[in-house]
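Troubleshooting: if your tokenizer reports a length mismatch, compare your output against this known-good record of 196 residues.
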Amino acid sequence: MGGPFAEVFSEAGLACLVYDHPGFGTSEGELRFEVDPPAQIEGYRDAITFAQSLDGIDPARIGVWGTSFSGGHVLVVAATDRRVRAVVSQVPTTNGWANFRSLVPSVVHPLMHAAIAADRQARAARKPALTIKAASDDPTDMVAMPGLEAYQWLMANGPQVPTWRNEVTVSSIDKFQSYAPESFVRRISPTPLYIR
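Known-good structure output:
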């Protein structure tokens, strides 16, 4: 879904590399629809390595950009990978636990934690990963991204990707709760950082 942004950046004279995170879009990777922040952050770093190998790319002038969840990823990447010379983070997710608590109604928390525990048991028994909808227009559904606005955005944009499904693994929610890119921000300096 980063293609339209890359087109704008390219028109401004920047070379852009767009890729899908493991398990999504045209990328390989199992489990499908597993939102795994450390794996996705590693994907950014692999993309930097690949970009530096391309003709016409100055390996000393690499910048990273991310929005929303990936807006948090680029904060971690810039803090841990000194090849990054500039970072732009657009409406970043900076604290998964705080986001979880603010987005998911408190009455749903025990249900979500029970689902996470059941998923862990299923995986330990080598059963398929449990999944839930990414978003829904039914406020009683247990989803990864509650709210009508999230649902409308996903329904407008998700189907543009041929392999997209309104689905994520339950373990994605488990991983999200421990996601805390805010703890990396102070380590980004002296790399220029723009947060919007």
